[in-house]
Amino acid sequence: MCDIPLRREACGQLFDTALAPHPGLFLSRGIKQWPGDATQKGEAFQAHVAKAAGLAAPKIYQSAYDRWCRLVAANPTIAAWAGKLQGRMFIGLGGPSVIETGISLSRTYGVPLIPGSAQKGLTRAYAKAVGLDRNRTMEILFGRQGLAPDEMESGYVIFHDAWWIPGSAPTPLSPEIVTVHHHDYYKDGGASDATDFDSPVPNTQVSARGGFLFTVECADHAWAALARDLLAQALQQWGIGGKTAAGYGRFSPDDGALNKMRSAREESWPQAVIKHIPNKGEIEVSFENQKAVPIKMTKTDFEKKWPGLLKKISKKTTYVQATVKQDGNRIDLVSIDGKRLDSL
Questions:
Q1: Which among 133, 46, 89 is positioned nearest to 251, based on CA atoms?
Q2: What is the pLDDT of residue 214?
Q3: What 3 state SS string does the chain have?
Q4: What is the per-residue pLDDT across 66-101, written as a single tens digit (0 to 9) for each?
Q5: Which residue has the higher pLDDT, 275 or 42?
Q6: Is residue 196 a contact partner of residue 56, using CB atoms and an 8 Å limit?
Q7: Mean per-residue pLDDT for 178-196?
Q8: Closest by alpha carbon to 261, among 84, 80, 114?
Q9: How far is CA 199 from CA 101, 196, 243, in A?
């Protein structure tokens, strides 16, 4: 059998010379050809997957992840949970792919993601297993089926795609070898006997590693929190994706990543204007077209916290380094010149 070229000539050596190839694009489009010899084909594919797994997430992904964290932290309708894989995970293994393995990847950034539909299915199965199908809880969380359209109802909870956490692993992808010990038995659907004389057939696969940020949304936060907790328990006890019986897809809580996400709502104002309103006993801080909620403070307390700053404010426009926390349209002061207000 002759070799089959897989890379278009127009692409040339772009994948080989690119400084930071898109991991997902390289995995699916970067292999040059399928060798006609089966052994050479296996070796070439193994080398290709190993090279794809060695690619780091693009630098712009960190900015995108930080933006998502700010949106999550500022939205009171979202309940979040961060988990780190105990090993590796197969997700989207049976999905459409131009190569002989599949994995769910972000089209934009090429990093693994866990589809919300997979999370919803896992959470529903777990909720049913723990006995929540005996009341209306299941219908509120996951919706209701029926024979007629007016008997059907969608669930009130949204499971967002889980984002890979930057820095949670050296690279997002990892090469994996899955060995089939009874090839003919599985190929024929059990028609052939599985014996000790069968030759094992190793298969190269690609898996995900590291941590993920899971987010569940509902207009009533209590329902979002319930769905989040059920999802977290299922991820830890059952796992998600393929081959969970072999230990793949199991998670442990990652409180560090969750706390970092929550702090993402804090923003620095490098040259904020500070004003003192004597008749109200308030301190105002603004930056560009934004203004934080004024803080009430006596002159004595203010002078203790920031010696000499009050006199400076009364004479001319004064700039300070401020840190604020945004919650929806509300902006609260966190610190002025590095001194936090919560330590007053």
A1: 89
A2: 98
A3: CCCEECCCHHHCCHHHHCCCCCHHHHHHHCCCEECCCHHHHHHHHHHHHHHHHCCCCCHHHHHHHHHHHHHHHHCCCEEEEEEEECCCEECCCCCCCCCCCCCCECCCCCCEEECHHHHHHHHHHHHHHCCHHHCCHHHHHHEECCCCHHHCEECCCEECCEEECCCCCCCCEEEEEEEECCHHHHHCCCCCCCCCCCCCEEEEEEEECCEEEEEEECCCHHHHHHHHHHHHHHHHHCCCCECHHHCCCCEEECHHHHHHHHHHHEEEEEEEEEEEECCCCEEEEEECCEECCCEECCHHHHHHHCCCHHHHHHHCCEEEEEEEEEECCEEEEEEECCEEHHHC
A4: 889 988 887 889 999 999 999 999 999 887 776 777
A5: 275
A6: no
A7: 80
A8: 80
A9: 21, 8, 22
Residue reference for tokens 């049913």: 128
Contact 205, 93 (CB under 8 A): yes
Averaged confidence pLDDT in the chain:
85
- Percentage of residues of the chain with pLDDT beyond 70: 96
Tell me if 266 sits within 8 A of 324, measured CB to CB.
yes
Alpha-carbon gap, residue 131 to 301, rounded angstroms: 56
Within 10 angstroms of residue 306's Cβ, the number of other Cβ atoms is: 18
Q: In the prediction, which pLDDT does 344 show?
A: 43
Higher pLDDT, 147 or 172: 172
Q: What is the CA angle 297-299-300, rounded to 5?
A: 100
For residues 66 and 245, is the Cβ–Cβ distance under 8 A? no
Most confidently modeled of 51-60, 92-101, 180-189, 248-257? Answer: 248-257
The tokens describing 70, both together, are 């700010």
Residue 171 has φ and ψ, to the nearest 5°, of -140, 155
Q: Is 277 left (phi over 0), alpha (psi -120 to 50) or beta?
A: beta
Mean pLDDT computed over 136-161: 87
| pLDDT at residue 239 greater than cutoff 90 | yes
